[in-house]
Amino acid sequence: MLDTIKEIICEYVEIEPEDITPESSLRYDIGASSFDLMNIAVAIEEKFDIKISNAAMPKVKTVGDVVELLEAKLATN
Question: Which residues pair with 25 in a beta bridge?
């Protein structure tokens, strides 16, 4: 799952997948803007057929947070 998330991130931000770790900050390490984050969230929703609530987004700071949120969503679907 982490590799899929990395691929999605790399579609929107100029970074190599090998430079992304679970601890990478979406904003500070990866350099994703608010617009990038919105596009990444939509791409994840489409890829995994889930809905990410707006309330959950402020809690997502790192790539690991994305994976945890996704795993939780998939477990409840």
Answer: 62
- Whether 18 has a pLDDT exceeding 90, the answer reads yes
Q: Quote the pLDDT of residue 8.
A: 97
Identity of the residue numbered 4: T
Residue 57: the pLDDT is: 82
What pLDDT was estimated at residue 25? 98
Amino acid at 15: I
Q: Enumerate domains of the chain plus CATH numbers.
A: 2-76 (1.10.1200.10)
Angle between helices 2-12 and 63-76 (to 10 degrees): 120
Local structure of residue 68 (DSSP, 8 states): H
